[in-house]
Write a structure and sequence with these properties.
Layout lengths: L3 H4 L5 E2 L3 E2 L1 H17 L2 H10 L4 E2 L3 E2 L1 H15 L36 H5 L5 E2 L3 E2 L1 H19 L3 H10 L13 H5 L5 E2 L3 E2 L1 H20 L3
Helix pairs in contact: 2-3, 3-4, 6-9
Length: 216
């Protein structure tokens, strides 16, 4: 199957400064489905537009990922003509974990639980994330955000400390990385827009990072 060229590629991992693994894996899964469907125009646009976050943790080698996606774009894009020697386009997005992303806690824009509960990701007819899975996930994240929003000062410290104490009937507080690396099932028969959901997931991870580190 042609999609194996998208799914089967293995990239070297680097300790810092690489592309976020979950984002690359999700995107390649979507690319593989579009290759099987022969959706050349859509595939070409997505390969050209995609950007990945740079992580300070272990990630995929940007050079290897860029070269592979350039190969897919030349092979399966609108023209489909190989262009040897084409310079890698570079697909790094603004790093949310680098020094540029460090903002004052007083100015950072954090999504709130009320807004999250009203959020409905864009719906697509083709390849998308399974809606029930995403809805349940967003509801769980909103629960954690709501608990953080209700406390400050000493109560905030106690809430974070209670995370490590098992309590029956109470869901644990989610941490940023638990949200950041969440994976969803993919449907070929419609669902939530994958890029839109991934962007929302990154914002929610940032919000939880903020609550875990804020001092008041």
């Amino acid at each position: 199957m042609e999609s194996g060229k998208a799914r089967g590629e293995k990239f070297n991992k680097i300790d810092s400064g690489g592309y976020r693994i979950s984002e690359v894996d999700r995107f390649l899964k979507k690319v593989a489905v579009n290759i099987d469907k022969g959706a050349r125009d859509l595939l070409s646009d997505e390969l050209e537009a995609v950007r990945f976050a740079i992580t300070k943790r272990t990630g995929y080698s940007p050079k290897e990922v860029d070269e592979h996606l350039d190969f897919l774009e030349r092979t399966y894009g609108k023209v489909g003509i190989s262009k040897p020697g084409t310079k890698s386009s570079g697909r790094s997005s603004f790093s949310r974990e680098g020094s540029e992303a460090k903002k004052s806690q007083n100015t950072i824009s954090v999504i709130e639980s009320k807004k999250l509960r009203k959020l409905t990701p864009p719906i697509v007819d083709g390849v998308g994330y399974v809606r029930d899975e995403v809805n349940q996930f967003l509801s769980t994240v909103a629960d954690s955000l709501e608990r953080f929003e209700s406390v400050q000062g000493k109560n905030l410290d106690e809430l974070r400390a209670d995370q490590y104490k098992a309590k029956s009937g109470e869901k644990p507080l989610l941490a940023g990385d638990q949200v950041r690396y969440a994976l969803f099932a993919v449907s070929e028969n419609g669902g939530y827009d994958m890029i839109g959901v991934d962007a929302a997931v990154n914002r929610l991870a940032e919000a939880l990072d903020y609550h875990w580190s804020r001092t008041s």
